[in-house]
Design a protein that fits this description.
The chain is about 15% helix and about 40% strand. By secondary structure, it is an alpha+beta fold. Strand 1 and strand 2 form a beta hairpin. The longest helix is centred in the N-terminal third of the chain and has 14 residues.
Length: about 400
Amino acid sequence: MTDILPADRLARRITAHRSAHDADEVRVRVTDSVTSAYRTGYDGAVSRRGGTHRTVVVSVRTGSHWSTELSDGAAPPLPHPPPTDAAGRVSACLLDPATGQPCPEVVDAEYAETSSEVTVLDAGGLTRWDHTHRRLRHWVGGAGGQHLEGAVTWGDRLPDPLVPREERLGLLAVRDAGPGPRGTMPVLLRPAVALHLVNLLASMVNGTNVLGGMRALRGRVGRRIAAPAVTVVDDGRLDGPYGSLVDDEGVPTARNVLLESGVLRGFLHSRATAAAFGCPPNGCAVRSQPDGPIGPAVRGFALLPGGGGGAGASGGSDGVDELRALLGTGFEAVAVCRPAVRTNGGRKIRLELFGWHVRAGERDRPVGPVTLEVGLFGWLRTVAACGPTLHHSAVFRGLAAPAVLLSEGSVG
């Protein structure tokens, strides 16, 4: 537990203490966050909860050796985000966009806002920046009594207020879905579905996993392993919601291009995995728990939008209308009812989905649950186009993806 001091004073005190004990270099990052969440249900009453949190990361170099310590606890008193229209935003989630009346299928809704102040002290001096993370989500009744969660997450700029309603309409439309199509066909993945594949991709290019079960990838650097529409980066710089000047080993973060137009360029590295590969570390080391080990992990991992020349800005909120036209006849996956699992000895990925049968570029009928199976690496080679809008995940920390059009997938 850290002392409740202003962040800059705390950072200077830690630096002075470490330097007095013969440390050659000290880097301190203090993150103070305050969260306010507003929740409502059928009765229309809005409840509020909130709290503060402080995380301190201290990286120390002695000679050529770096060590990192992480601690967390309560933050000093901070002003809560102003509740200007928070109650209105969360209440609006319960309204039917067409009638403006309460929608009985929507079970619950929540609006959360987290404001963070980050202070970094290193050899270059003191740096401070702020960022705000907001999320609006809701739950609706799903087939078989399940609940599907629709979420919209964004950074410093509030989105169009219609976006959450559009997401909800997509989920409600598949609530009473019927039997789906079967066979190999083109598949359109909405961002919330594409993120499940991107999450597995992030683990595949993790340096630790490449040294283990994904060893064959090591010899593929510089070679094409995906379609030209696929460009993937991990950006740990200051402009991301989980950005930082340095990683948890004190290595400066950067924009790392992992796949470029389908060509494998590299992996997520800590100092240890980089040494095993004979390359410099790239600022991707993360300590996920205060007493846990450090290893490579994502900070701002994204399948970039716009690849393949598919959807333009006119294609709806995520370019899905234009991608659907490119799809022709096939399956549009809207929501996941069971997370991705690896099958067939780990060579396949299977998802259970709700969505739409599409005929001649138009939605024909809602279907689901439907099983989609794609190759662990094979789906990367079938990416025909990506939508123009990047959606940040509310489920997978530090991941983002657009809508994705696959030229084929096994549906049934």
